[in-house]
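Troubleshooting: if your tokenizer reports a length mismatch, compare against these two reference records.
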Amino acid sequence: MLTTNQTVQGTAAAAIANFLFSLLFLFGLFMHPLSGTQVASWRVLMMLFSLVLLVSILKQWQHIFDYLKTLKTPTEWFLFILPTPILGGQIWLFMWGPVNGLGLDVTLGYFLYPLVMILVGRFCYHESMSTLQWVATVCAAAGIGYDVLQYGTISWATLFVCLGYPPYYLLRRKLAVPPITGLISDLVLLSPVVLVALYSSGGFDLAVSTSRLWYLLPLLGIISTAAMSLTMIASRKLPVSLFGTLCYLEPIFLFVFSLTILNQNVEEAGSLFMYGMIFVALLIMIADSAMGYLARRRDNRLHGYTEPQINSFPPRRRLKNRRIKGVLTAHRFRKIRRYRQKINKMSRKIEQLHSR
């Protein structure tokens, strides 16, 4: 069973990681005179640099290359590359929205995103939904429906966040792409685009001429690396249900930052009724996850099992075994090749001895 110390450490790591990710939401305010688009471009480059450093420290490059070797057909490569523009758009909106008066709209999208993912799991993967999950979904739908009837529309930023991420994760899940492999591949593919954007908009000149950016840009990379590292630590120390519950902290932090630091009014992005229903849905989701965690913990204690652990987020079920087998085959192939090289070397020595 998980020790109390592990649970405390994992919870602290998850909470700090969510806070750091939320802190990135405000970087556009600090990095003036860079525009929101320029800040997003710099974030891609800084994330790539920090992720390369992190993967190098953890010595995970071979796992990334082993997975890429399993992509054989043009269709598989197309499906692998297809989600990249979605992530690029999400990074851009996350940095552009707060400095353009859409902080609450983006935050609302992150509130709705877990509920949308539950519906995707139910109707795309036929996963069962608990009674509380159905109640939470109905509450959120009632709040959104009220605003649509009242104002006739909902923010495009909200829709882009809550409806944009599900296709990204569905495509990644279809090929069973490991999170680190998918993220670093996305950032590499986005790099030429953001380099051109920075060059054409004068982003490099502004970064050189503004002394404040000399430490803010590295800080952007440091915070990204710290947040990703703490998320990985939390994912290893916590059970799936508890880890998933703590991920709701990020939209809560975003909401608080939007009201306090960005000085937005709640009614700028929707009615109080809608936000109230979404908060009720969020509380129900947290309660459902907590009850599931406590029930599994009690059951595991009775049966003497250890708590289930996860090595990545989001948790994925029924992964494509063909991908996993492909990676294992690549590992076995390298071992077989090394042994064959040793055998050939010994055979040559034996032949040399016989020839004498």
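Reference record two:
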Amino acid sequence: MARDQKAKAKMEQAKGKVKEATGRAVGDESTAAEGRTKKSKGDLRQAKEKVKDAFRE
């Protein structure tokens, strides 16, 4: 289960980076902001999984 969540976090971070870069490239600030939000969500999910791992050990 943890691997699935970690994979989701990585995927969310990657999608966010791509969306942010695309938004910046075309000059669409709302798309870039959505990308930053998605990337942040992935970062938070990854941090949560790291905390859970620390308590398991």
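Descriptive notes for reference record two:
- The chain has a mean pLDDT of 92.
- The first helix runs from residue 2 to 26.
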